[in-house]
Specification:
The protein is built from 8 helices and 9 strands. It is an alpha/beta fold. It has one domain: Spore Coat Polysaccharide Biosynthesis Protein SpsA, Chain A. The strands form 2 sheets. Strands 3-2-1-4-7-5-8 form a 7-stranded mixed sheet, with helices on both faces. The chain has a two-stranded parallel ribbon with strand order 6-9.
Length: 230
Amino acid sequence: MMKYSILIPSYDEYENLKILVPQIISVIANESESYEIILIDRMNKDEDTFQLALKYNIKYIQRKGGDRYGDAVRSGISEATGKTILFMDADGSHNPNEILDLCKFSNSFDLVVSSRYIGCSKSENTFLKQLGSIFLNKLCRILSKIECTDFSNSFKAYNGNLLRKLSLHSNDIDIIEEIIFKLVRLEGNLTIREIPGDFRKRINYESRRKPFVYFLSYVRTLFRLKFMEK
């Protein structure tokens, strides 16, 4: 079993990954602990992404069950061998230099969050996206009564043994809040640590996520988890 699994869901992100993957490898290259990097591609193989994985000798898998973000998350968890499972985006919005801190604190905490809303954190999101994110995360915190300032940022490190016990059903980015809710229900004394994080602009391409649709799906899932599921 690996100590750490770094999972990167990808859908046509080769131009970003060819920059991001070498950065990640550079960060972890001199660490004594064991790491694996897993690229989680779409169901229909992207040959450039596959060749990139071969070039750097990292694990490449394809999504199972569908091509949505939730499918990527579930597929990655099923393949990861790490005691700690860390997710980060393929678009370069997450700073690889934070990986070591997330992993370090994961030795003492069940969930470690790169938060845009504490300390000296920074976000390059547009004003409207930032405003929507602040509202959404405050709503999550109020309804869930979970002390986490940044539910929606996917850059998190999880206790792998706990994560593998969850049955996850969300299809899109709202699977992130589903994970937190269900971890707390599974492990009543879930320990959480947040570190200040940087949220950067995408390296290449425009995001395929539609902010309003994403916002609605997140709120819908939040209320489902709070009031409908037990």
